[in-house]
Design a protein that fits this description.
The chain is of the alpha/beta class. Helix content is about 30%, strand content about 15%. It has 4 domains: about 90 residues, Immunoglobulin-like (Sandwich); about 350 residues, Alpha-Beta Barrel (TIM Barrel); about 55 residues, Oligo-1,6-glucosidase, domain 2; about 35 residues, no CATH class. The strands form 5 sheets. An 8-stranded parallel β-sheet has the order 12-11-10-6-3-2-14-13. The chain has a 5-stranded antiparallel β-sheet with strand order 15-16-17-22-19. Strands 1-20-21-18 form a 4-stranded antiparallel β-sheet, with no helix packed on it. Strand 20 and strand 21 form a beta hairpin. Helix 14 packs parallel to helix 18 and helix 15 packs antiparallel against helix 16. Bound molecules: alpha-D-glucopyranose. The site of alpha-D-glucopyranose has 9 residues, from loops. GO terms for molecular function: alpha-amylase activity. It comes from Leeuwenhoekiella polynyae. Belongs to the glycosyl hydrolase 13 family.
Length: about 575
């Protein structure tokens, strides 16, 4: 066979310089593409509580972020999404806001915020704020007023059910230990609705005054110069407020029953015309509806609602006992093709509601942590859609083995979920197995800066334990190692930033049946790249008739690439991007 007589040769990866390959012709030939800064953005998500503490209370703060802005800039990311930093009693770590125009004292002051924003802008980094307005905290002034009497002017800012009407129709609560989203409140002998915890009462979006309040809050931050908004849990804002009785088992598909109802588009259009369209801001909503059509209705430019959807199909795939690469490929390919011509999506594999991506999708063992983390970062940064990179993933941070027993967890969802499982006589060992694999707390353990005590995160006691692997997995060590996950991440951001094909190019899945390799091309005019990702811990071969055409190695997470003219053999978790010369 021709193939077999060819000598296997080894190409030393030269990481061909992304900068020098910027194709100016491509840029000018792509006028039919609707270019936007937020499509070209690389978003870095910071969980402020866990990023950098400066005052020794064991909790990250805004001054800490300011101190680390040069690091953030060095990553090659262009925008930061910050989880909520507003005043909050922290029942759900800031997703329970008690004052939308103030900074949580744990995090600092408004002065710190203003400084942080201007220092970000001085470095050309944009800031996206998290807006939590499906619910507020029960300690917000609006709720204090609302619960004080039935005829208080703020009463209809929330959803109340008078006790004389009998028990309200059951609603499932995502975070409640008892599971019911209605909470009885003695003061006015009524129940209020809370889809999340009891301290997160749902706002009544049918009340135009609530919508005006929210638009004013958005304007307040837009006037300060922030560059975008992420609308938290927003599909829940539009609910059926006639509160019909739902069929048994509706919790399994609860979105269909009590989110995404009529009204959602009206609310978003109002926000768009009152706020978004008057500022150069990007907008992304958590959740993307139930179908691709519904996602389009949120994000298509002619709808004048938001810019991009943040869908969960992909992060829902991994389970404690593994997952199927075929499903992974199918999911990403389905979302890409649905938005190929119109609309825009987000690409991510982790965030503050997920465990660490390398532990969920790849391999966090000593031998494979680094190549597999690099492989996942290559994937995120080579797909069409705006990439969201979660802090620490640029280092290959992993799930934390210190989170063993329920007492080790801080997340309200984990703790109340455990209580609920116990009440319902569920298998608690299985509950803990799933928690150890998928808990949100794994994604929230502190940033690993160096090998000193507590990884340079704090001089106090960290609010969640550091992952013991911080002695070797940390910024300081990885900055000094040319082959680190961190340096690979920087090469990938540079490659994406300097190659429009990775932002705007068409995506095509190839050899979709391949059991180990995820292979796809991105094509923009004459520019084409081939991306090959080995998702397995075994070597994997990939044959292609015109392989020789892809003669330039643009990125490689190993020093070598074994291939003939017709076949490439990838090492465990090897990731390469090849270009046509
Ligand atoms: C969103 C947030 C999550 C939070 C929840 C309630 O899903 O991402 O962290 O707990 O909303 O606000």
């Amino acid at each position: 066979m021709y193939k077999s007589v060819l000598l296997m040769f080894i190409l030393l990866a030269t990481y061909s310089c992304a900068e020098s390959k910027k194709d100016n012709n491509t840029t000018t030939e792509t006028t039919n593409i609707d270019k936007k800064w937020w499509k070209e953005a690389i978003v870095y998500q910071i969980y402020p509580r866990s990023f950098q503490d400066t005052d020794g209370d064991g909790i990250g703060d805004l001054k800490g972020i300011i101190n680390r802005l040069d690091y953030i800039k060095s990553l090659g990311v262009t925008a930061v999404w910050l989880n909520p930093i507003y005043s909050s009693p922290n029942d759900d770590n800031g997703y329970d806001v008690s004052d939308y125009r103030n900074i949580m004292s744990d995090f600092g002051t408004m002065e710190d915020f203003d400084k942080m924003l201007s220092e970000m802008h001085a470095r050309d980094i944009k800031l996206v704020m998290d807006i939590v307005v499906n619910h507020s905290s029960d300690e917000h002034e609006w709720f204090k007023e609302s619960r004080s009497s039935r005829d208080n002017p703020y009463r209809d800012y929330y959803h109340w059910w008078p006790a004389e009407k009998g028990e309200p129709p059951y609603r499932y609560s995502l975070f409640d230990a008892e599971g019911n989203a209605w909470k009885y409140d003695e003061q006015t002998d009524s129940y209020y609705l809370h889809y999340f915890s009891q301290k997160q009462p749902d706002l009544n979006w049918e009340n135009p005054k609530v919508r005006q309040e929210v638009n004013d809050i958005l304007k307040f931050w837009a006037e300060k110069g922030v560059d975008g908004f992420r609308l938290d849990a927003f599909q829940f804002a539009a609910k059926d407020t006639t509160f019909p009785k739902f069929p048994d088992g509706f919790e399994k598909n609860f979105i269909q029953y009590y989110a995404m109802q009529d009204g959602l588009h009206k609310y978003l259009k109002e926000m768009n015309s009152e706020v978004f369209s008057n500022y150069d801001v990007m907008t992304v909503a958590e959740g993307a509806g139930r179908t691709l059509e519904e996602a389009h209705e949120l994000v298509d430019a002619d709808r004048n609602e938001i810019n991009m959807a943040y869908a969960f199909d992909a992060v829902d795939i991994p389970k404690a006992d593994g997952y199927d690469l075929a499903t992974f490929k199918e999911t990403f390919s389905k979302w890409d093709s649905a938005f190929a011509k119109k609309g825009w999506i987000s690409i991510f594999l982790s965030n503050h509601d997920q465990a660490r991506m390398v532990s969920r999708y790849a391999n966090d063992s000593l031998a494979y942590r680094a190549p597999s983390a690099k492989m996942l970062n290559t994937f995120i940064l080579s797909m069409r859609g705006t990439p969201y990179c979660y802090f620490g993933d640029e280092l290959g941070m992993t799930n934390n083995p210190k989170l063993k027993n329920i007492e080790d967890y801080k997340d309200i969802a984990a703790i109340n979920g455990f209580k609920k499982a116990k009440t319902n006589n569920e298998d608690l060992d299985e509950y803990m197995r799933n928690l150890r694999f998928g808990s949100r707390d794994h994604g929230r353990t502190p940033m690993q800066w160096d090998a000193s005590e507590n990884a340079g995160f704090t001089i106090g006691t960290p609010w969640l334990p550091l992952n013991p692997n911080y002695k070797s997995v940390n910024v300081n060590a990885e900055e000094q190692n040319e082959e680190s996950v961190l340096n690979h991440f920087k090469k990938m951001t540079a490659l994406r930033t300097n190659n429009d094909v990775l932002v705007y190019g068409d995506y095509k899945l190839i050899q979709k049946e391949h059991k180990q390799i995820y292979a796809f091309t991105r094509t923009l005019d004459k520019d084409e790249v081939l991306i090959l990702l080995n998702f397995s811990k075994n070597e994997a071969s990939f044959a292609l008739d015109n392989l020789a055409a892809y003669s330039e190695i643009k990125i490689n997470n190993y020093l070598e690439l074994a291939h003939t003219e017709l076949e490439i053999t990838l090492k465990p978790y090897q990731a390469v991007i090849l270009g046509k010369d």
